[in-house]
Amino acid sequence: MDLKKWLIKYKILHIIMWGLVMTFSFITYYNPATSLFSQVANVLTVSALLTIPFYFSAYVLVPRLLYKRKFVAFIISFIVLIITMGLTTLFITRIVDHLTTHAKNIIPEWKTLGPYVNLFIWDTVLASFGASSLKILSDRFRMEKRLVEVEKEKISTELSFLRSQINPHFLFNVMNTIYFQIEKTNTDARLSVEKFSEMLRYQLYECNTDKIQIQKELHYIKNYVAIQTLRMEEDSDIRLMIDQEMGDFLIAPLLILPIVENAFKHVSNFKEPGRNKIHITIKKQDRNVLLMEATNTYDQSHVQTHLLQTGGLGIQNLKRRLELLYYEKYELNINKEGDIFHTTLKLQYND
Asked: Which H helix or E strand runs over 341?
């Protein structure tokens, strides 16, 4: 279905567009005194050559130069493209004329060279300028649509958060009460309650902004893993590896938590604790790329096809947030091999 939509949206529209261009060109330059075959061959040749400046302008010059504010490089490349393709089109169409009519020299006479060059230069200008304009307008409309979706998602998230605040506040106060009721000698219990209280505090008072410092997010992840580890068998293979050189950048709050939750939710429950494994790695891969990998074992005797299909509600929400907040700046891969379930997230940030 996705392939069908793609074909309908792009291929068919482009075929119709170029069909109209060829029809208009043929009607405009039709000459009854000239061979019909020669004219059709010329129209097909010119239209085919115009696709080069058209798509090169739309998919190379505009996104790679204009959008990145490399204005000088864009203007120079635009001019070079127009001159090069204009002269190339002239030369190739003259060859086609020569082969189909046997009446013209490949190199036009000097007095007709100017009009020929002018015609094909302006055709190339029209193709390049039209493609650039369509690309800019298309991207503008798509960006406005995404901004509306992001705003709706933000409002929805804020409303959901407000509805759920009463319960976390209650839990937070209860945790503080329980903490002081635990005997000081029971350090493990007090530490667990303390970590849980820090998690609630983070959700209540830190996660009310669009972006948050990565170190705060990682501290929350550490607390979450520490608490989840308590319910695992003592000899389970639980590892959280965080790069010491993460730097200081901003990230959407609670963005990577669903991957960690998914690993603990679906981890295996083998009788030998050492076979139950959860390995989580968070590091910087490049200058502005965050890499997160989560690997966990799972019991194949329990059919879990939904893991690969949806990854659970948390993973579905994660995909939705990534698409809205980090459009074309992330890569999320979920797969399994044997009894190993592996999730990888690459995130490009700007801060």
From this structure: strand 340-348
Assess contact for 255 and 292: CB atoms under 8 A: no
What's the mean per-residue pLDDT of the chain? 81
Q: Is the pLDDT of residue 271 over 50?
A: yes
Going by C-alpha positions, the residue among 264, 249, 271 that lies closest to residue 341 is 264
Domain boundary among 130, 147, 164: 147
- Give, in order, the Cα–Cα distances in Å from 225 to each of 107, 178, 195, 247: 75, 21, 10, 21
Q: Which of 147, 172, 196 is the last residue of a domain?
A: 147
Span 294-308, pLDDT tens digits: 999 987 665 444 444
Is the torsion defined by CA of 196, 251, 139, 346 positive or negative? negative
What domain range includes position 114? 2-147
Report the amino acid identity of residue 46: V
Decide which of 188 and 121 is more confident: 121
Q: Which residues pair with 277 in a beta bridge?
A: 237
Reference 41, options 53, 29, 55; nearest CA is: 29
Judge whether 133 and 125 are in contact, CB under 8 Å.
no
CATH of the domain at 254: 3.30.565.10
Task: Please state, in angstroms and rounded to a whole number, the distance separating the CA atoms of residues 87 and 253.
Answer: 55
Give the closest residue to 339 by CA, choosing from 287, 295, 309. Answer: 295
Return d(Cα 90, Cα 49) in angstroms, integer: 10
Contacts of 243 (CB under 8 A, 6+ apart): 282, 283, 284
Q: Which residue has the higher pLDDT, 68 or 7?
A: 68
Q: Is the pLDDT of residue 110 over 70?
A: no
Distance CA 124, CA 78 (A): 10
> For position 1, what pLDDT does the model report?
43
Helices (H), 232-299: 257-265
DSSP-assigned beta bridge partners for residue 213: 250
State what percent of residues in the chain have pLDDT above 90: 23
Task: Please calculate the CA angle 168-268-295 and round it to the nearest 5 degrees.
Answer: 80
At position 255, the amino acid (one-letter code) is: L
What is the mean predicted confidence (pLDDT) over 185-210? Answer: 77
Residue 258 in domain = yes
